[in-house]
Design goal:
The complex is a heterotrimer of chains A (171), B (583) and C (339). Chain A has 171 residues and is of the alpha+beta class. Among the domains of chain B are: 90 residues, Ubiquitin-like (UB roll), CATH 3.10.20.740; 100 residues, Alpha-Beta Plaits; 170 residues, Rossmann fold, CATH 3.40.50. Helix content of chain B is 27%, strand content 16%. In chain B, helix 13 links the parallel strand 19 and strand 20. The chains are: A alpha+beta (171), B alpha+beta (583), C mainly alpha (339). Chains in contact: A-B, A-C. The complex binds iron/sulfur cluster (SF4) (4 copies) and FE2/S2 (inorganic) cluster (FES).
Chain lengths: 171, 583, 339
């Protein structure tokens, strides 16, 4: 046999006792276990009414950080686009008069491609793209799935929790 | 002939060679910033430190002449430590600019920081601030913070461009580069400093921030700007040329190319293209048509005229193959022994690279059997000046013209003489005054979209490679270089949907017309034409696309001119940087 | 007579069809509870209209017929499955009889079948054809494997089923289901008199209805969906319904054979009028069936699927010998205890 796992390796297989070999008692034990669960409190969240506020470590859709002055933090270095496994990001750079002389004229994430891996966030040298808490993504048409800067830019204040989390993780 | 050892291996050097030269010749990479094989030795970056036995201190490999019995160690502990320390000093004031720096991905400093530094900075103080956007010339912006003061740019301006206007100002860690007051580095060779700058301190206004290096695919090509035919490399993203840069070819252009060829040539491939064949309708307006109709109409109309009333024109702007095909057509159907092509002699040689002849293939067209034609006594000498085309046109004997891709009607005399031409079919890649005058326009691929051979004025033949796709090519199938985006994008991705033009290599149309006139040509690929040329033309004997390779070959009568390349910049060699070339 | 039978058929069919769809809901609820979830609660009050939504959804699906399928067999297979599942119900006495005025209506669709047990065994064995045909006619490897497994499994467990049944027949000395029920009227149900027989029959029933832990013919992880991989829309729904109808049938049969049918212990001591007695009987029957259904579902969400070799081992090396031993034991019991 080609494989040898914990489960089919005879040396680690436990010898069953006669009682266990009878099988029925064990079956009944299993049945009792599941029966007890019928009366346990339920975990179900009644979704549209009860919404979930994910913890800061949650990787929802990636967003771009918007500085207080309304401009993006991103310098269009293209690293996120380079690292993105499904090639969801497109960045086109141009020059501005600001101190950071480079900015994205086009920044698009194809949310139909994004797999929420968070690599873009991890690679970004400017902490300009970060994962948000937004998990509600619905489109009626594939073209709606391509998010431009208008949908991606989120004011820094709203992202405080994640930014703090990242700062903490980096130390 | 001193013998010496590097890292335990014995090498032989020419008298007067430095350690780094011998190392380069033998494929040993000694890190260096300020040394450049085509420039004088400055020895100011100290990156090339190596250990030489019996000398108390580390020596710079770029400035140390090899002596008999010398023992050089590049990998010893002290040498490694020395390099690490140099890197640490260099990085003290270097900004963390890589994300916005155009050089990132092909930056020596970045690469060496990877290979030869500790990876940690101990410098916690505020870095120096300098001017980040200072124009040094019309094409060049200088970022003082990124400069590592290697002085390559200064030496280039002085030694190669012969315009010594760049210099260091201030001292210590305030040192920076500036142009001499009231001067600007506006030489036609100026943009080469951008290539040789080992970091991203000098950036091109033309390319600034257009794309990251790793997003582009790079294809070896030849500059079509003048009859020098500099070896170049074309950077393409999304089927659009974003930049051209020179490629080291000792027989043609060394490490350089001129600004004219660099920034004025490629936009013609991206913009103003003729997309599909056109034909003038009854009202004299050009309308889109298909290739077969265009070829049929051309053939039928040409047939109507007497052979002497038809003028067939070659072109110095398109490769040898097209001229060969056109001449073949002229011989088979119009009883001509040779065909003329119009020379484009504009201005003077700059004595560095740029030639007065602004077409890349005059020599190639001539070798293919065409005859240069133009009224340029200062070039051809009063006697040799051919002005037959102009005279023929003026004599009103010519009623129909069929021309290869060449914008020759920019000459007002020719345009005026063209008034009496009844039928004009031409090849054209761009919307030009010539294409507007034509009755039938065949849309041809530009130099960056096709295979073909250019022969430069010295007789050096180089082959073109398609870098941009037309409707008839598929990047993967036709062996075009692919960037990562090309490779993994789907047709639904915006960045994989770059515009493709409906255009083919010129000889396709010559073949279509010729077959309409009754020949039975059956060429499928440009290479077949070149094989035929190599088999029949002694000057091209033994050549093939494969033997031309990336550096080209001399034609048979010029074999004496070959120089061997000794050195390729590492990052130039790999073209696309390591990071981008793989997955 | 005929009209009476037709009315009974109509009522039973209606009740059973509704019951089937609600069994599905029950299944979803129980599975949810066992996993600490709530279960369907959105459609209608408490989610009670969920079956309606399910049926509507299935009806509106596109009916896909695979290119490689044998069209006719592909179509007829689910029909066989569902009709067999329902036809067994015809011989199940779900109550003693209803006395309205002077007419006595026996509460069986096809009363007076004196070989009910044989009929039962015969009908259930036909069920395998539906599945095997479906597997073969779909023209898909998964379906084919599912179909083959199913026939092998059915054949193996039919033996045990029969042996379990035999003990009951021996004890009551009749093949008539009514007689079997009446023989248990003293409160001494067959489950007590023939516990091993019950066990054999019960376990085999799981195998016969393709329920976990014996649902190898449709084992999702290996066979995608087994014999019904290539079915969609209403044809799939028929298989789906057949599975649940089979569960109901199996529960009814077990109730009849081992749990005293419509007999409710101590009910006759209450001295109720005949009509009320009948109704109490029917209710008792229904309750027993419900209890068994719950067990079916409960087992499904507790015990993992057997491996194929384990399934065969269990059938041939454990249950079959046990069945034979049980026959001998029952014979001894009959000779020494009952008589
Ligand atoms: S990695 Fe960050 S800075 Fe770079 S392009 Fe992406 S978001 Fe912008
Ligand atoms: S989360 Fe991952 S997949 Fe999504 S955009 Fe970022 S890198 Fe790409
Ligand atoms: S010059 Fe090189 S190291 Fe400096 S910022 Fe640019 S890429 Fe980075
Ligand atoms: S600008 Fe570039 S080439 Fe010139 S000194 Fe600075 S680093 Fe060297
Ligand atoms: S390369 Fe030798 S000192 Fe700069």
């Amino acid at each position: 046999m080609g494989y040898n796992t914990k489960y089919n390796n005879p040396s680690t297989n436990r010898k069953l006792t006669l009682w266990e070999k009878l099988y029925l008692p064990e079956v009944i034990r299993g049945l009792l276990t599941t029966f007890k669960h019928i009366f346990r409190p339920k975990f179900t969240r009644q979704y549209p009414e009860e919404r979930w506020d994910p913890p800061a470590s949650f990787r929802g859709r990636p967003v771009l950080v918007m500085e207080e002055n309304g401009s993006e933090r991103c310098v269009a270095c293209g690293l996120c686009s380079r690292v993105c496994p499904p090639l969801a990001i497109e960045v086109r750079a141009s020059e501005t008069e600001q101190l950071k002389e480079r900015y994205p004229v086009v920044f698009e994430i194809n949310m139909l491609r994004c797999i929420f891996c968070g690599f873009c966030e991890e690679v970004c040298p400017e902490e300009a793209i970060i994962m948000s808490k937004d998990y509600e993504l619905v489109f009626r048409d594939p073209s709606e799935g391509i998010f431009g800067k208008d949908k991606l830019l989120v004011p820094k204040a709203e992202l405080k929790e994640r930014l703090d989390f990242l700062a903490e993780m980096r130390n | 002939m001193p013998k010496f050892t590097i890292d335990g291996n014995e090498y032989e050097a020419q008298a007067g060679q430095t350690i780094i030269q011998v190392a380069q010749e033998n494929g040993i990479d000694i890190p260096h910033f300020c040394w450049h094989p085509a420039l004088s030795v400055a020895g100011n970056c100290r990156m090339c430190l190596v250990e030489v036995e019996k000398t108390p201190k580390l020596q710079i490999a770029c400035g140390t002449i090899v002596t008999e019995g010398m023992v050089v160690k590049t990998l010893s502990e002290t040498a490694t430590k020395g390099r690490e320390d140099v890197m640490e000093f260099l990085l003290i004031n270097h900004p963390l600019d890589c994300p916005i720096c155009d050089e990132a991905g092909q930056c020596k400093l970045q690469d060496y920081a990877f290979d030869h530094s500790r990876g940690e900075s101990r410098f916690v103080e505020e870095k120096n601030h300098k001017d980040k956007r200072m124009p040094l010339g019309p094409q060049i912006l200088f970022d003082g913070e990124r400069c590592i003061s290697c002085s390559r740019c200064i030496r280039f301006a002085e030694e190669v461009a012969h315009q010594p206007v760049l210099t260091f100002v201030h001292r210590g860690d305030h040192v920076t580069i500036n142009a001499v007051p009231a001067e600007s580095f506006d030489n036609n060779m100026s943009m080469n400093v951008i290539d040789i700058c080992p970091v991203g301190a000098l950036t091109s206004r033309d390319f600034r921030f257009k794309a990251r290096v790793w997003d582009m695919s790079f294809t070896d090509s030849v500059c079509p700007g003048c009859s020098r035919g500099c070896s170049t490399r074309i950077g393409v993203r999304n089927n659009e040329i974003l930049r051209t840069e020179p490629r080291n070819n000792p027989n043609v252009n060394s490490y350089w190319m001129c600004d004219y060829g660099r920034v004025e040539m490629y936009p013609a491939v991206n913009e103003g293209r003729i997309d599909g064949p056109r034909m003038k309708d009854a009202a004299g307006k050009q309308q889109a048509t298909d290739y077969d109709t265009a070829a049929r109409v051309t053939a039928e109309t040409l047939k109507k005229y007497h052979k002497d009333e038809v003028l067939i024109l070659g072109s110095a702007a398109v490769p040898v193959e097209d001229n060969y095909a056109m001449l073949k057509l002229a011989r088979e159907h119009f009883g001509k022994q040779t065909i003329p092509f119009i020379s484009h002699i504009v201005g003077e040689d700059d004595r560095l690279l740029l030639k007065a002849d602004k077409t890349p293939n005059s020599m190639g067209a001539t070798l293919a059997g065409c005859v240069a034609d133009g009224h340029y006594p200062h070039v051809h000498g009063e006697k040799a000046a051919h002005t037959t085309v102009l005279e023929l046109l003026r004599s009103r004997k010519i009623k129909a013209v069929f021309a290869l891709g060449d914008n020759f009607l920019t000459d007002p005399q020719l345009l005026e003489a063209f008034e009496h031409v009844e039928f004009f079919a031409c090849h054209a890649a761009n919307e030009t005054i010539t294409s507007r005058r034509a009755d039938v326009v065949f849309s041809i691929s530009h130099w960056a979209e096709r295979d073909g051979v250019f022969v430069n004025f010295e007789g050096w033949a180089q082959s073109l490679n398609p870098a941009v796709t037309t409707n008839y090519q598929v990047r993967g199938r036709d062996q075009l270089n692919m960037s990562r985006l090309d490779r993994f994008g789907s047709p639904y991705d915006k960045w994989a949907r770059g515009h493709k033009r409906d255009a083919r290599e010129g000889w396709h149309f010559v073949q279509l017309v010729s077959n309409q006139l009754g020949s039975k040509w059956h060429y499928l690929h440009t290479e077949q034409l070149f094989e035929e040329i190599a088999a029949t033309n002694p000057e091209f004997k033994g050549m093939s696309y494969e033997s031309l390779g990336s550096l080209g070959q001399p034609i048979a009568s010029k074999h004496s001119m070959v120089k061997e390349p000794i050195y390729q910049e590492v990052y130039q060699e790999t073209g696309a940087p390591l990071m981008g070339s793989g997955n | 007579m005929v009209i009476e039978a037709l009315i009974k058929i109509a009522i039973v069919l209606l009740v059973v069809l509704t019951a089937v769809s609600y069994t599905v809901l029950l299944e979803r609820w129980v599975s949810a509870w066992v996993q600490d979830r709530i279960g369907p609660n959105r459609v209608g009050p408490l989610g009670l209209l969920q079956p309606l939504a399910d049926v509507l959804k299935l009806l509106l699906k596109e009916d896909i017929e695979p290119m490689m399928a044998q069209k006719w067999f592909h179509w007829v297979a689910p029909v066989i499955s569902i009709s067999v599942a329902f036809s067994v119900l015809a011989i199940i006495p779900f109550g003693h009889s209803l006395t309205i005025g002077s007419t006595i209506i026996p509460l069986t669709i096809a009363p007076n079948i004196n070989i009910g047990v044989l009929m039962l065994v015969a009908l259930t064995s036909v069920g395998v054809y539906g599945i095997t045909l479906a597997g073969w006619s779909s023209g898909s490897k998964y379906s084919l494997l599912g179909g083959i497994r199913s026939s092998a499994q059915m054949i193996s467990y039919e033996l045990t089923l029969g042996l379990g049944l035999l003990s009951v027949v021996m004890l009551s000395g009749s093949l008539d289901l009514n007689a079997i029920i009446n023989s248990q009227s003293a409160g001494l149900w067959n489950i007590i008199r023939a516990p091993i027989g019950f066990l054999l029959f019960f376990v085999s029933s799981f195998a016969e209805t393709n329920r976990q832990p014996f649902d190898l013919p449709e084992a999702e992880p290996e066979l995608v969906g087994g014999y019904h991989t290539e079915y969609s829309s209403m044809k799939f729904a028929l298989f789906f319904l057949a599975e649940y109808a089979n569960m109901i049938t199996a529960s009814s049969v077990i109730t009849v054979l081992f749990l005293g049918g419509w007999h409710v212990p101590f009910a006759d001591q209450l001295g109720l009028p005949a009509l009320a007695m009948s109704i109490v009987g029917i209710l008792g029957f229904v309750l027993k069936v419900l209890g068994l259904l719950f067990i079916f579902i409960w087992v499904r969400w507790s015990i993992p699927r057997f491996r194929y070799d384990q399934l065969m081992n269990l059938g041939w090396k454990v249950l079959l010998p046990l069945g034979i031993v049980n026959i001998i034991l029952t014979a001894l019991e009959k000779i020494y205890l009952v008589n």
